[in-house]
Amino acid sequence: MQSLRAYTRLYTQFRTAITPALASRSFPVRQMSVSLPQTRPLSDTEVEGPALKKQKIEITTLEQKDSPVPEETATEVVISLESAQSANVQKPKKKKKRKDPPLPEACTGADVLYQEIRELLGGDVVDKVTQAGGAFQSPYNFGEEVEVKIETISSNGTGIAIAPAEKGPWAIIVPFSLTGETVRVRIGKTDRMYSVGHPLEILVKNTELRDDSRVQCKYFGTCGGCQYQMLSGETQLDLKRNVIVKAFKTYSQLPESAIPPIESTVESPLVYAYRTKITPHFERPPKYAKKEDVKDGEQPPWLKIGFNVTNSNSTLDIEECPIATSVLNEQYKIDRQKITKNIFSYKKGVSLLYRDSLDPTIDAKEMMTPPIDKLSDAFTRHVCVTDQNATAREMIGDYLFEYTAGGFFQNNNSVLPLMVDHVKGLIKSSETSGSGRRPTHLVDTYCGAGLFAISLSSMFDKVAGIELSKSSIESAKRNAELNSISSEKISFLAGDASNIFATVKEFPPQDTVVVIDPPRKGCDEPFLKQLLDFRPNTVVYVSCNVHSQARDVDAIVRRTQDNEEGKRYRLESLRGFDLFPQTAHVESVALLRLY
Ligand SMILES: C[S@@+](CC[C@H](N)C(=O)[O-])C[C@H]1O[C@@H](n2cnc3c(N)ncnc32)[C@H](O)[C@@H]1O
């Protein structure tokens, strides 16, 4: 009888929590529309930055789930509770004390957030709570509504509030909120030392920074792609500079005197319609779906094609993404209709690819044969490539790059020439502030399709690039050919970045520049060891994750300082580039030189 009461209580709690969701399938959209601007979405995957991954919606227990709650899942849970009631009710098993999951991997988004929460609550306090087994014990109930005041904006772009003293040390992270704002939130999922607070209404706005009329996307406030559309460009650049400052404070132990003044973040010429790759996704039809649901090609409510809802694994249906280029949006619109029509032919969820490309049907050699008529419509026409294995191409500065559409290439080509020019300027400064000599050799590690190796090649006598992806190396070789760089001068190798040093033994380290542009996790120990053994005069470290960059730069500087003999690296320049406007992501370029 007692167990039955327990089930009934749980069932009632559950119904109370999900009633708003059942009233509207787009629960979070409704919630956000109360007070936050309705606007736009985006994003994508892998090593490059803003990431929206396709994930299956799977909700098992009330405690585990976070809004929004899809109706079909709610029904499933109700059925299972009812069948438990009618069956021979077994005594619920005593819950085993759950062991806390391991700490997040260093330098990941989860780790950065945890470190920032530790900093706010106090490391000792957090350690005490953790030892007492309370790191995942939220003082709030799931679904509870509370008012919170935002203390700061985290590096991932969400506001962080601290729970009042009587609740104990705890944080609430609130997407789309700003420092100083008071927000009414609905408590969602719990993580290590924090709860997610879904914003319902901003009671006190930070009018100095926020102007909701800036928002250009109707999905903004719900979609997980953008965080900053309500801010001016200038504020976004300042926040990103601050992310670099914090990263070097937290992830390097370099003294302040060893960190140069961090320059202002370089603005992207395009702040909307800049993104050259998007990867929206959708799930196969749910079990309850019927073919008649797709009447006259109309999209049924259960079909969501788009990106993830912020802080959630569920998909938000998105018709267009204003930060993506127009050719991507045009193709995506057409495909949405086709997918809807054929949705019952999909047996699995799908992640789509949209890549902006110069028209690949035009002969590339012809494009690069002088005189290059850059004004010709045919040569500058952009198309959308959707086949992962097809070739995409773009012009960066005076160089043409081809690559496999599904492979890596930077996603904002409007700002790339500025970043490449900045790297050129850093290298040139060797002649004045460094060795006083022109560096003659370049090693481009993690080179992808050869962006830096090729763009910088005119500055050097010899260039070598290395990259793990064989298809990217094929592209890099072809790009050297397309841009008429001889194989005597430039070579590319497929393999682990650390292997390059064995192949460039004839490169004079004192006249060599090494460019490092690793994936988000940064460099591994074998790479750092080989780099430090080789000891090039100049290192330019480009990164889409300033936290792993700060850790690696620290290792490079301190390990040469610890070595009493010989020269030491100095961090000479640090600057952010806004490759991802409207989001919290920043690309960072560091210069290290041996003295
Ligand atoms: C951030 S991308 C940079 C690519 C290139 N520099 C560019 O800007 O286009 C990082 C690249 O590192 C490659 N990569 C990942 N792990 C690697 C490893 N252990 N050794 C060499 N390359 C690696 C990835 O395939 C990816 O192309």
Mean model confidence by pLDDT: 86
First-last Cα distance: 78 Å
Number of domains: 3
How many strands?
Answer: 22
Strand order of the largest sheet: 6-21-22-20-19-16-17-18
* General shape: globular
> Compute the gyration radius: what is it?
26 Å
Helix content: 25-40%
* Main beta sheet: 8 strands, mixed
Bound molecules: S-adenosylmethionine
Number of helices: 15
In terms of quaternary structure, the protein is single chain
Structural class of the helix and strand makeup? alpha/beta
Strand content: 15-25%
Regions with little confidence, pLDDT below 50 for 5+ residues:
1-89
Verbal overview:
- With 595 residues, the chain is of the alpha/beta class.
- The protein folds into 3 domains: 218 residues, no CATH class; 216 residues, Vaccinia Virus protein VP39 (Rossmann fold); 128 residues, no CATH class.
- The strands form 6 sheets. It has an 8-stranded mixed sheet with strand order 6-21-22-20-19-16-17-18, with helices on both faces. The chain has a 5-stranded mixed β-barrel with strand order 1-2-3-5-4. A 3-stranded antiparallel sheet has the order 7-12-13, with helices on one face.
- Strand 4 and strand 5 form a beta hairpin.
- Helix 1 packs antiparallel against helix 3 and helix 6 runs parallel beside helix 15.
- The N and C termini lie far apart (78 Å).
- The structure holds S-adenosylmethionine.
- Belongs to the class I-like SAM-binding methyltransferase superfamily. RNA M5U methyltransferase family.
- It comes from Agrocybe pediades.
- GO terms for molecular function: tRNA (uracil(54)-C5)-methyltransferase activity, S-adenosyl methionine-dependent.
